[in-house]
Every structure is written in structure tokens, then in C-alpha cells.
Design goal:
The complex is a heterodimer of chains A (146) and B (749). Chain A is an all-alpha fold. Chain A is 63% helix and 1% strand. The chains are: A mainly alpha (146), B alpha/beta (749). Chains A and B meet through strand 1, helix 1 and helix 2 of A and helix 3, helix 4, helix 10, strand 13 and helix 11 of B.
Amino acid sequence: MNLLGRDVPVRALLERIESRLQLRGLREAPSADEGVADEVEPRVDPLSFNLGALEEHADPTRPLPLHTHRGGVGQLVVVAKWAFRKTCQVFINEALARQRLFNGHVRDSYAQLSAEVLRLRAEVAALKAEKAPASKAKRTPRKRAR
Amino acid sequence: MAVHQLIPSFVSGDATGQAALHFQLLLRRLGHFGNIYAGEVEPSLSSLALPARALRPEPDDLVLYHHGIASPLAGRVLHLRCRTGMVFHNITPARFYEGTPLHEPLVSGRAQLAALAPWLDLAIGVSRYNSRELEVVGAKNVHVVPLFIEPERFLPEAADRTLAAKLGNARNAPTIVSVSRIAPHKRFEDLLALHEESLRLNPDARLIVVGGYDSGSRYWKSLRRRMKGLRGITFTGRVSHAELVAAYRAGSVFVSMSEHEGFGVPLLEAMACDLPVLAFAAAAVPETLGGAGIAFTEKRFAFLAELVHELHHDHDLREKVLRGQRRRLEELSAARAEQALGAALSSIGIARPHARRPRADRRPKVAIVVQRFGDEVTGGAEKHARDVADRLAPYWDITVLTTCAKDHLTWKNELPAGPDRVGRLKVLRFPARRVRDIHRFNALSRTRFGRPLDRMHEEHWIAEQGPLVPDLFEHLAHHAADYDGFVFFTYLYAPTVWGLPMVAQKALLVPTVHDEPPLYFHAYADALERPRALLCNTPEEQALIARRSAHAARARVVGVGVEPLPGNPERFRRQFHLDRPYLLYVGRIEPGKGVDALLRHYRALRRSDPGAPDLVLAGALHMTLGGEGVRYVGRLSEQEKWDALSGARAVVVPSRFESLSLLALESFAAGAPVVANGDSDVLRGQCERSGAGRCYTDAASFVEAVEDVTLRREELSRKGRAFAKKHSWEAVVRCYREELDRIIKETRR
């Protein structure tokens, strides 16, 4: 356990509390990880995330998990939604058939375009890398004649 | 060039909305104009934020997009043809929401962040922690502009009394307070575990949790199960600002168990309420605490319960923590945030234009900013502005910046927008964006007055008050450097409260303050504290401002001058067929001016003395008049007014809310005694200093005052004339010129 505070006698406070815990028979083994959890979240690549999301949700006839954020009446709503799906899935499929086709095209187009973007980015990076040593060499200053 | 803000939603109680308003406050202080646009605007707040679809930026504008959870606006930002920036509030890690509908928008928000990052001209994290994430996703030109709170909104008097009484105080037992919406990553289950340990040390220990929750969510249900068998827990749900303050102030220690915070505003709010802060050192929490409070790295609940009790009982330890927290609050002040935002904007070439160096060989160029202006406009402050402008015109190159409205109740655009002339004065008129529905506005006022509010609710009231003139603000932002000085009239209206901070370094304010509920809104602080000087009308107004704000700008009493025209009472009597003595009122005839109470008192006078003088009312009529002896004569010309004043038995001034009664001064000058509403400190002061008037507070004292001034008319008339002579325009003009010269000298330096 680490306490962080500029205005308090941290060590003395820790010792005082630990000794009180000991008196109560509550001494705990200190944890191995006592650092501050301040790592930032990793980057989510937008191209692959969007492609994944389009794949996941391309079929509009597939239901999302049943959910409510309301108590009481909210539970009844969940039951009603479940009953609707059970009894009306065939109509849902019929109503959304064209949407499913359309979503599939959107997904495939995005996949092709994003692949193209990735290929072009790689090409640009390679060209830049190729160009960099050449321009460096050009910029090397010549010694001025005295 | 404008700096607009774009946020996903603008609804009451939303933290991003509050942050956008704070940014707007800073932007105004930095001299920039801009609107708030939102994907979703709460209908009742439509005066304060515009729908995102209305955003049409110019190429050199900057749009600052506030990003958090996934929003359709992120895609829109990519296609804006102007400079773009982001204010990143961070996104809760999706791992806390596996299997819930929130999981995908959280991941999606991070994907949008990465997609936007390379396109941004400016990236702002509200903490260093957030800025690090911006850098990780590839944003360039990353800055930190920390959020801030307004500590004066958290003073004990801001606490809701009902909730405070219900929650009691923490004198008897340690009371933990925690504030945030009830969500998995806030780890309320850890708070319950801590409370359980706390109960072992003191069975009277309490836990107060403030924040909204979804009653049907699995998480809430699991907390409910966990709570069974635990005593002393209060869940308040969502609360108003005053209730929030009451909850903070009912506690002895603030505890946060949250495992992810991009900043942690409640930590600062607890500090402002003098509540020691104990928080799990996750994400941006240690940075926000900045060494103040106590952060812990491990959740050992028995240990933390001991620590809570130590903070509750050990006075010395508590005082040390509180001292450090006060220091931290100062470090995270609005002024620091303003500095940081200014630096961030400068990095993309957005800076306050340099003031033009005033030239000694020409008249100073001055803008007079007032809500209405013109020959057909009535109103005390507006007439005041006109009189001052007319008298200063020989010395200053004046442009009056005003609206197209004639009517202050609706702000309807009745005069053409653009350049205009009133007498010899140049006028620039700007159209109001909204028409005011006065009945709806009055209903809103009843819900807002007399109770502590957060900034959003105060700013909303100001927006509804109006007049909303975006083009005027844009003019101030673009042309601030063209003027040597600004004189704003009336603190109350949007052009002053929002416009003055943009040019505060060169601004004088004629506040025309009187003791009314909005004066105590903290949102008016900038208008009263930032100008170079306040030019008051009376010593009572000056004293009121000093009582209202310890940090108010330097104030001096300047007032107005009176130049009486010779009056011909007989002409007035003939014109309006008046054959009996009369009491006179001149001004807007409406309940807000106390005319309804005056009519009641006058009826009492007639009952006690059927031969009492008539009551003659002149001015714009906004209410129904009636009753024996009551005469309405319509609006009077200047000469007719002086004729009327000089023949009056006495002049009645019934308004309670006055910063100066011009009518009283003119009555004194015309030799008419004054019978004034004694509930107004200003009128009472004017009557006492002149010795030429009597005050009333009810019907009985009104009857008595009228009888007294009738008996002593000659003596009061003499005193009144002597008093009025002291109010010359020459002295007033000298004061205004002195104050502007001071500004010009400092600008030159």
C-alpha cells in the first residue's frame, strides 16, 4: 500500500494504521503491485475496428442482446421484446431482406477501400523512406571556399 | 474568425456541457467569439446551444469538438472545411462494460479518436493523462487545458437546506461521500466494502452516494443485493446543484474508488467544500490531486476504513489535508486554464489582436454598447446611455453598438440592421436571434431566482433574458482593436455579461445595478469584476456592488446631470383638462415598476381623503389602469414632461429596483417634492440626501407621505432645487473622460 499526499506525514500515517490493524489481528500481506495505474488505453485502429463492426452488424435481422436500463416496467418491456422476436422473426426477415443485402455491399466496399488505403499508405511510406536518404545527401552543405 | 464548440449533447446536468460553457467563458475572456453547437440539444436549452446541423464555419474559424464516447459528430468533424481542434475528455475503457450495449460505443469512441487525430490542427487534453493518449493515437500539437470549478458555487450558503437537514452532519460519526454516476468502472462495490469495514469501527458510520443510476441495470441490481444488511447508506440519485453542495457538506471524507478518470471534477468540488479527499490513484486522479488530498494505490478496505476514521477524528491531520487542497484549488483556477487555452490557440495563430496604439492627435474612438438605442426607445438605462453619448460626442468619436429592438419585452427586430444615425451619433444595429416570450421567461425566473444554481442554469437564464445578438459579439471580437475604449450600459443583459469580458481591458461599465435576484448569479462576476471601472449612479449602488462582490472592479459614483427646461404647469393642465391638484408618475407603466402597488396605495389615499389629488400617469402602458382619480395621459414629449413636473403636487416614484431615479432628480430640479418607495435603498438615499422627499413602505405610510409633502411643499421644493443643481453634466462628462484617458494611457504604455 502506497499513500500519495504532499501534505500528510505518509510514513507515520501508514505505520500508525498498520499497527492498529495488527492489534485488531488484521495484518495483510502487502501486494506486489503498488504502482499508480496511469497507463493510457491502447490505440484502436479505426479501419480494422470499423470493418469488424460492419461485419458484426451487417445482418439487421439478427437481434441485439435483450437489455433494459429501467427497473420495474423495464422488465416487462424485455419480455415483450422477446415475445415479439419469437413470434415475428419471419416478418422481420422479410422486412429487412434488402437492408441485409445493402449492408453486405457496404461492408464489402469498406473492406476493399480500407485495404486500398492501407496499401497506399504503405507505398507512400516506402517512397518517403526511399526519398529521405537522397534528399539528405543533397542537403549536405559544401565547404565554403575561403 | 470564430472559435465554435461542437459537443455530442447539451442537456442539463451533463458534465461535457458544463465544460463547454467553461471553455466559452475562457474564450470570451481571451477576446474570441463563438457558439456552442450540439448533436442533441435539450429543447429548453435551445437559447444556449444551437443544433449541430446549423454549424457553417468560415474557412479560418476553429471548431473545437469535445470528444468522449462514440458520436456521429466525429465523422462530421473530418469533413469540416475549417480548422479543427479536439477537447478530449477521455473514454471509459470498454473492458468494464463487456456484454453491455455500452461496450461497442466505447471502443468505437477510441476508433474515432484515432481516426480524427491526424486531421486535427489542435488537440487539447483536459489532463496530461488525456494528452498522453492523444499523442499515442498520433495527434500533433497537443496541449493540456485543465478543467476547473467555480469554488464560490460550493460555499455553505449554496447548500440546499432541506437535503442538508435530512442528511444531518458528520459530527457524530465518520460519513463518506462519493459523487458520480453509478457505473461499473466507478467501483461502488468497493465503496460498499469500505463502508462495511467502517461500520466495524463505528456502527453509526454513514455512506452518502450521489449520482444517477439505471434502475434496471445488472450493475445496480448487484449493488442493491450487496447493500442488504448494511446500515447507514443513502443513495440520493441525481440531484440539483444546491443538493449536491448539501451532500458534500454533510460528509467528513470524500472517497473515490473509480478505476478510470480522465480528470475527476468531483475531487475538486469536494475540495471546494472543505472535505478531505481520499481517492484510488487510477488514471488522471493523482494528477488532478497534484499532491493534495490522499491517493492510495491498493484497495485494502480495513486499512482505508482506519484512514477514513483517522481523517474524521484527527483534527490536525484533517487541517493539513484541507490546507493542501485549498492550494490545489488555486493551482487549478480558471485563470490558469485561460492561460493554457490562450497558449494552445496561439500555437495555431489564434490570438487576441494587438490593440491599436491610440493617437494623441485625434478624438478617441469609443463604442457605447447598450441593449436598445433610438428616439423611439424608452427606458431608464437606454435614456442614460443616450444622454451620456450626446454629451460626450464633442470629445469622442462615438459609435453606438446596439440591437434592432424597440421593445425590451420581446427584443423583436423592428429597426433595420446595419449602420444608422440617431441625432449626430453613429449607430450600428445588430439583429437579435430570438424573440422573447415574456410570460415564459417570467415563469422561468420564478424557478431560478433565490436558489443556488450551476453555471448552465444561470447562463440559460441570461440567454433567455437576451437579447441574443451573435453579430454584436462577432463585431466585438473582430473590431476590439479599432476602438480605444468601450462603455457598456446595464450589467443585466447578454450584450454586457457576454460582450464585456471580450474587451474588458478597455471597458467601462455603467452597471445600473439594483438589488434583484440575478445580481447574485455568479455568472455576472465577469461583468462586475473585469471592466477597468464601474461608473455608478449613487453611493447606494456603489455599496451594493461592494457587498455583492469582494473582487468587483474599482467603482466611483458618477451619476447623471440634470438640465431642467422651464415648465409651464397651466399649459399641461389645459392640454389634458386637469382641473384638480395631481400626483405624477412618469415612466413605464408596468407591475415591474411598482405601479400596481402604487394604484393600491392610491386607492387607500382616496378612501382616507376623498379630496386627495388625482394620480396622473404618463409613459408607455403595459398594464390595465383604473380607479377613481387615476388619469392616463399617454407618452409625453420632453417639454410636456417638464410642464407636468413643475405643476405636480408631488411626483411618485414607486419602483423598488432603481440604481438611480432620474425621475426623482428631474422632479427635484422642477421643484416638485418626491414620494418614493422606501423599499429601495437608492430612493431612500436620494430622498435623505436631498431632504426633498418622503418615503413609503405601505398604504398607511403612503397616505402620510402625501399629506406631509402637501403641507411642506414650499420647503421641500427649495431643497430639491438646491440638490438638483449639484448634478451637472459638466462634472459627469469630466468623470467619463478621466476614466477613458486612464485606459488610453495604459494602452499606450
